[in-house]
Amino acid sequence: MIRDIFKRNRKQKEAKIPSKQAKNDVPEGIMTKCPECKNIVLTKDLIQMLKVCPTCDHHMRMTANERAQMLFDEGTFHSLDDHLKTENPLDFPSYTEKVEKDAVKTGLNEAVLTGTGEIDGQQVAVAIMDSHFRMGSMGSVVGEKITRAVEKATELGVPILIFTASGGARMQEGVLSLMQMAKTSVALNRHAEKGLLFVSIMTYPTTGGVSASFASVGDINLAEPKALIGFAGRRVIEQTVREKLPDDFQTAEFLLEHGQLDAVVHREDMKETLSKVIRLHVKEAK
Questions:
Q1: Are 80 and 149 a contacting pair, CB within 8 Å?
Q2: Could you say which residues bind Zn(2+) here (predicted)?
């Protein structure tokens, strides 16, 4: 079904259907404009295509719930720790109001959805970050939820999958955010000591403290096409080294070429790829 939709829209691309309309001509919610090529697509069709542009193959941002629906066998996903909510430990101005606004917008209490489910009948635990919530930034609750998801995977003796989509550590929580880098990494080390699998899937963007901690230490590191992956921003690095960086610097393809990724996987192939990885690495996989 999904592949048929991709083929149909690729034919439309070859036919060069006019798509450059004025921004005000696009009905809100009905049509979606690709941020890369500016092609306009029916939102309902785009969702069926897993939010991949049929014209330029740009992978648009997904919500955590959309990824869960894409990934797991129907009816098998069960979320964990939905009750955990962020407080304002540093009394940062307007922080509580912004978090509450994002909670209403996304339907999540924080920037990560965690739980357990099955992929082609194989049980896993998962943490899926959502860049629609405070740009997926990692505060104390995000770190706690990811840590608990890893510990659940260790308890069950199953693989842990983590989809990253984050601007990094959340500045409104200061050092409490930075502490999550160590906490999540320790939980993953304990998971590894049990001989259990961790697959990291990096999506746009994976930056800052998230890229410098759990995102980069998977037994297998995957990424979506053209995902932005790095620690510091491009301009900061160029000003520091006083050199012009390659155009594809900090993209998934650049990292793959330089040995920092195992594979770049198209979104429509992600479930199949993860299923194969689990079967190859888990002794009791069905």
A1: yes
A2: 34, 37, 53, 56
Q: How many helices (H) and strands (E) does the chain have?
A: 10, 10
Task: Output the six-digit token pair for 28.
Answer: 């809100």
CB neighbour list of residue 54: distance below 8 Å, 6 or more residues apart: 5, 6, 8, 9, 10, 12, 13, 39, 41, 45
Please report, for the chain, the start and end positions of each structural domain, with discontinuous segments joined by +. Answer: 1-60, 61-281
Q: Which letter, b or e, does each residue of 160-187 get, where b requires 16 or more Cβ atoms within 10 Å of its Cβ?
A: bbbbbbbbbbbebbeebbbebbebbbeb
CA distance 232 to 167: 10
Annotated binding site for Zn(2+): 34, 37, 53, 56
Tell me the two tokens of residue 167: 């601007």
Sequence ranges of the binding site: 34, 37, 53, 56
CA dist., res. 206 & res. 191, Å (int): 22
What pLDDT digit, counting tens, does each position of 237-285 carry?
Answer: 999 999 999 999 999 999 999 999 999 999 999 999 999 999 999 876 4
Query: Residue 204 CB: number of other CB atoms within 10 A?
Result: 22
Beta strands in the chain (DSSP E): 31-33, 40-42, 78-80, 112-119, 122-129, 160-166, 198-207, 220-223, 229-230, 263-264
203 close to 222: Cβ distance less than 8 angstroms: no
* Cα 30 to chain centroid, rounded: 24
- Which residue has 């009791």 as its token pair? 284
Q: Look at strands 112-119 and 122-129 and give their pairing.
A: antiparallel
Q: What is the value of pTM for the model shown?
A: 0.88
Give the domain 61-281 fold. 2-enoyl-CoA Hydratase; Chain A, domain 1 (3.90.226)
Question: What is the rounded CA–CA span in Å between residue 130 and residue 137?
Answer: 9
